[in-house]
Amino acid sequence: MTVDEKYMPKIVLASIDLLGTKSFFNLLGPQSKDSTYLAMESLTSFVRNAYENRAFGGIGLGSDFLQLHDVTLHFGDSVYLIPNESLSLDQQATRLIASCARLIALGFVLGPVGQQQKYLARAGISIGDLLERKIQVDTGTDDNRTQTTQQTIRIGSATVKSHLLENDQNWFGGAVSNDVPIADQESNLLRYDVPLKPKAKSDGSSKAINWLSPLKADTDLMASLSDIAAPKDCVDDSVIQKYQNAREFIRHIIRMKPPVGAAIS
User: Fold this and answer.
1) What is the CATH number of domain 2-255?
2) pLDDT at site 145
3) Which residues contact 63 (CB under 8 A, 6 or more apart)?
């Protein structure tokens, strides 16, 4: 076994959770694939559909999305977006914030509003260190030749902090930790009291991702989103609360002046 390591003392990282995937898996019935693999398949399908989607005047996720991030899987169905380390920290943050805003927005657009779907998302962006370890593992021999496969492990405070921030939020939406360097003209953030779960483990010091910014030109869609609610057959109070908190955020954005998309002050 051979090992190649790379340590990044500071990197901005996003953790994304596709909410409702467990319910989606239950609908599929017994599967030969485990839920972790299905979660990855679900995100991959979502990203592909979002990338190809012609919503927002053809913006979609942007032509550079798939080239800017590595998509890796940790902690069950939470997926991390890891930016190109050659970018400055504020550039990393800008790319991640824009990507998360579009992912969250497209999750609402690509499925029927007000119905249970697997694309409702929550995102947390934080900064920390990251250790990347690539391991060549011997998998046996074939025709007297050793067969190997490469596995990549990524772990560090960046993964932990972004995961905690994502998991602590009590809505469909996203937040960025206050210690993340932000460009002066960042238009996809705003100061908002991000709703947290009662037993949140993060300190809650964050700004909200303005995931409605990509939708600002579609006033009819914005108006329809202001009335989102949990499915009528939903009896899970925690899910109902997430819908309520997302609805309050949407209505706050609609009431905002200056218009959605203005730079954070």
Assistant:
1) 3.30.70.1230
2) 66
3) none
Task: Give pLDDT tens digits for 217-252.
Answer: 777 878 888 888 888 888 889 989 999 999 999 999
Q: How far apart are CA 158 and CA 162, in angstroms?
A: 6
The DSSP 8-state label assigned to residue 213 in this structure reads G
Q: What is the largest CA-CA distance in the chain?
A: 70
73 closest CA partner among 25, 41, 106, 114: 41
Rounded to whole angstroms, how far apart are CA atoms 62 and 82? 16
Are the C-beta atoms of residues 73 and 82 closer than 8 Å to each other? no
* Calpha distance 59→62 (Å, rounded): 6
Beta-bridged to residue 81, according to DSSP, are: 14, 71
Q: How far apart are CA 244 and CA 212, in angstroms?
A: 16
Report helix, strand or coil for 252: helix
The pair of three-digit structure tokens given for residue 3, joined into one six-digit string: 């090992």
- Give the DSSP per-residue string, 212-250: TGGGTT-HHHHHHHTT----TT---HHHHHHHHHHHHHH
Q: Read out DSSP for 14-81?
A: EEEEETTHHHHHHHH-S-SS-HHHHHHHHHHHHHHHHHH--HHHHTTT-TTHHHHEEEEEETTTEEEE
Beta-bridge partner residues of 131: 7, 155
Peptide bond into 9 cis (omega under 30): no
DSSP secondary structure letter of residue 263: P
Identify the top-confidence range among 197-206, 226-235, 254-263: 226-235
What's the one-letter identity of residue 132? E
